[in-house]
Design brief:
Layout (H helix, E strand, L loop, with lengths): L1 H15 L1 E3 H8 L3 H13 L3 E3 L3 E4 L9 H4 L4 H14 L16
Length: 104
């Protein structure tokens, strides 16, 4: 998933503030075009400065990855929980609802 890679890139940058493109390619084990695509997206979000040689973190105070990146993580599980909540609206108050533990 794209967002997982982008979060990994941001996590590395939080620790180092600057990283070379070559390091990201070797460390994350993705092609240079894939890493470059992720870097362009992060740059559009204003989180990094991407240059030919590497990447610099712009937002020094970034403690948590932005909601834009988090919204696609665990999408199926979030939809399942939302569906359960929607179904709960139609249940009587005396009925029980069982939720599998792997979705909690």
């Amino acid at each position: 998933m794209d967002n997982d890679r982008q979060e990994q890139i941001l996590d590395i940058l939080k620790a180092t503030k600057y990283i070379s493109l070559e390091y990201l390619i070797n460390h994350l084990h993705y092609s240079d075009s894939t890493i470059r695509r992720d870097l362009r997206k992060l740059e559009k979000l204003g989180l990094i400065k991407y240059s030919t040689g590497g990447v610099t973190l712009i937002k020094e105070d970034l403690k948590e990855n932005p909601l834009v990146l988090k919204s696609d993580i665990n999408k199926e599980q979030k939809k399942y929980i939302a569906d359960l909540n929607y179904a709960y609206l139609f249940l009587n108050l005396n009925e029980n609802v069982a939720t599998p533990s792997f979705y909690l």
